[in-house]
Amino acid sequence: MSRVVNWLQHHETRMFHFVNQRIQHFFLDHFFSRITHLGGATATIVISLCCALFGQGQLRIAGIQALIALTISHIPVAIIKKKYPRLRPYLVHPQTITYKNPLTDHSFPSGHTTAIFSIIIPFMTAIPVLGVILLPLALIVGLSRIYLGLHYPSDCLVGCLIGTAASLATVGLWG
Description:
Layout: H1 2-22, H2 26-35, H3 41-54, H4 57-83, H5 89-92, H6 111-126, H7 131-147, H8 153-174
Organism: Paenibacillus aceris
GO molecular function: undecaprenyl-diphosphatase activity
Membrane topology: Multi-pass membrane protein
């Protein structure tokens, strides 16, 4: 079992270093440092709340569902961060490239990735054509967390799974 865990950690670290150090580019620095905020609390709450309050029909329902999924998804995130206090990559790997205001709380799982995935599913369910934009956008937010040196790939993968599960449960129970 420890051989498997070591193998996984080794490959995850390699993947992290590739995204964080090998694909560095001036354009990507600015792009990822801006787009990452779409998974933050302010953006996800404001977008969902505006759709819930001011949207009509399916958009309004999607906004309400997104708010519920966002709330539900962060319960396991808070529990897991306390139970499995994983240090952020830049604290473990000194060569990690970080940007403004690196975070100091625990890395696992990614709250930004959880948040963006928890809000996109209701909108994709209500208006399926939005999936062409929203799914790649959510994946880019997750990738930005790795690029910016704040999360390992598994942090983002688990955040994606938690956000998606909370959102699917909310949408499924709604109707």
